[in-house]
Amino acid sequence: MTRILSLTVPLLMLTFYLSNRESCFLEECAEKPDPGSNRSSQYQEPETRTEPFSYAGDIYFVETSKRLDGSFLFMCSVESAARAHPNSLVTVLMNGLLAYSAENFPRPLAVSLLSQFSNVRFQALDFTKLFDGTPLADWWYRLDSYYEPYLFPVLSDACRLALLYKYGGIYLDTDIIVLKNLMNLTNALGIQSSFKLNGAVLAFEPRHEFLGLCLQNFVEKYHGAVWGHQGPNLLTRVLKKWCGIKRLRSCNGVTVMKKRVFYPITFRFWKKYFSTNSSSIFKKLQKYSYTAHIWNKMSTGSGTPLKIGSNVLLEQLFSNYCPSTYEFMVFYGDGNHRVLIN
Length: 342
Prior knowledge:
It is found in: Golgi apparatus membrane. The structure is a single chain. The strands form three sheets. A seven-stranded mixed beta sheet has the order 3-2-1-4-7-6-8, sandwiched between helices. The chain has a two-stranded antiparallel sheet with strand order 5-9. Strands 10-11 form a two-stranded antiparallel sheet. 39% of the residues lie in helices and 14% in strands. The protein has 14 helices and eleven strands.
């Protein structure tokens, strides 16, 4: 009977996706589930949002490419944020939606699944509109994408600064899995090493001075051909100069969180997510960390698959913090129960 149920739920969900219906099939759409629960979904109708869309929201995700078929890691990131923040608005901005028609069929899997959360909305990402009123406006007007080797990452770096400077809130990369509610964080970012900050998780009030300085530095010291120059390196150099410090620490009202808070496993050890079967490490993440950064750049380049049933750390994170995405992963696994997450 258990086997039948485990197959039935993904099949029902897949049928929903292909038929493009509107009913809600995610577990407790407006309520935060028990993090330890891995039960099947409950069915209910989502709330209908009638207010006009705007960029303002509590939590932001950004997809700067034209891609609409979000990966399983993308889906898990948004789902985990929605579940951890049932009373917050999660806005997913996608460049590809500018040319997307509601008549397109079928809807992208990620959009179909994640839209069923009543606190998640998708919106077209208009760079001109977003950058208007910031130092990025003229930079964007003059930018020649042909000469930009890291165009999409650079645009992502620009978008997160503009969003939080203009509207405030929390920005998350799409390879972040949220483990705890982040709403108690204000004007905070985290270190990925003793010498460098990371912008995969940012929480700031609107019009914060630090973000304003980052926007200025983004344009004045622009060097898009160097990986990270407009992202982690920018955040690091601006904070050090603004605070007059050599070693990274909290200063001028900006809180610098310890590595274990946002980036408990550093990019050098990203394979641990795919190879470590350890309940003790998982429990430490649950106790000490707010997020887990899966380092999409590393895992994508290697083509490393996740083996369903291996109970490695990444599978534990998926099954506990994005169970609906996990059910789809189980369904889409190959004959050897392997699935690519990005």
